[in-house]
Amino acid sequence: MKRKNTIGVQVGNIRIGGGGPVVVQSMTNTDTADIKGTVQQVYELARAGSELVRLTVDREESAEAVAHIRDQLATRGCDVPLIGDFHFNGHKLLEKYPDCAQALSKYRINPGNVGKGSKRDPQFAQMIEFACRYEKPVRIGVNWGSLDQSVLARLLDENATLSEPRPLQEVMREAVITSALESAEKAVELGLPRNRIVLSCKMSGVQELIHVYESMSSRTDFALHLGLTEAGMGSKGIVASTAALSVLLSQGIGDTIRISLTPEPGADRILEVIVAQEILQTMGIRAFTPMVISCPGCGRTTSDYFQKLAQNIQSHLRHQMPSWKQRYKGVEDMHVAVMGCVVNGPGESKNANIGISLPGTGEQPVAPVFEDGVKTVTLKGDRIAEEFQEIVERYVESHYGAQA
Questions:
Q1: What SS3 state is found at 398?
Q2: Which of 63, 66, 189, 269 has the most CB atoms at less than 10 Å from its CB?
Q3: Which residue positions form the known binding site?
Q4: Where in the chain is the domain with CATH 3.30.413.10?
């Protein structure tokens, strides 16, 4: 799946587009004015693998906090680029808080609510002026739910004059694309270089999103941000986002992605990062963390031992990755198999870099371990889980360490 050749955009230390890797990003849900809480969440998102993190900048207290957030992250060794999400009053906040304007690595502007009526164009121009002044890239992000009504009204009027008017849904899709493309060209006219512009047209329907991005991709070479907005929560949000983005990514469309999941109350925000990474990794586009291969279980695996071991190993690998990726080149490509019985266990374990075939119901209580297709040891007793984790650690060191 060859990447579509879009214009590369530098955002802090991360490059979007230009044929480079698809970038994973996320967004905080803390009150940005809560400096301590926001710093902690940004740090956790970055540690989980978010390469860009967006913050809500909705009022003066939030704008005033941004530079402090940037400074505190730096003291923790976290240099993840921060994106300011502006709606309605961004022009005022950037003017009043130059430290905020400077601390952010990118601005997000929504053409649908940058200003109404006669205020729209001058306030949009002010946002672009600040981006030019501070040499910041901009994402012009159109949302289905906050579409510029003047663009929609214009296209509806034009459609009404046709001998065969197009369906309303088609006109609305075209209005979303038109809003993004016209706003981008306006930004260029105002002096913003094309290599500082990223576009997005977010929808909440899977097929609508696919139609819009397929059309937009054929009409522009600006870098594209993908995301199904208001995807939902739990399995629905994950499935919908995966369905939409996988179709587009398989066509080489999309330079950066965000998974917009509604979190469970009190749940960890990093799930959206994990889902984004796993979409890219399972499609063979990028690798982020060793993959765990495990069976679904059946009547041969009435014990939940293999399920717990698979879960523990996967959690362990993900927890280790922030340090491993600095020390072990290529470890993210490793495959680990944790299988539950003799039917597919030995075969899958042999095909993985390292694997274990646990005993199923009624089988002899032993667990052969395979490394690079060769059985190296058979585990038994009460410490199979601990011993296998130790073997995985030794495998990583011996195969991906400096001496490997």
A1: helix
A2: 63
A3: 295, 298, 341, 348
A4: 291-401
The per-residue pLDDT for range 320-349, each reduced to its tens digit, is 999 999 999 999 999 999 999 999 999 999
% pLDDT > 90, the chain = 95
CA 225 to chain centre: 10
Whether 8 and 223 have beta carbons less than 8 Å apart is answered as: yes
CATH hierarchy code of domain 9-283: 3.20.20.20
For strands 106-109 and 82-86, give the pairing. parallel
Show binding-site residues for [4Fe-4S] cluster.
295, 298, 341, 348
The CATH-assigned architecture of domain 291-401 is 2-Layer Sandwich (3.30)
Among candidates 152, 153, 148, which has minimal Cα distance to 115?
Answer: 148
Helix then strand then coil, in percent of the chain rounded to 5, is 50, 20, 35
- pLDDT one-digit tens code per residue, 293-317: 999 999 999 989 989 999 999 999 9
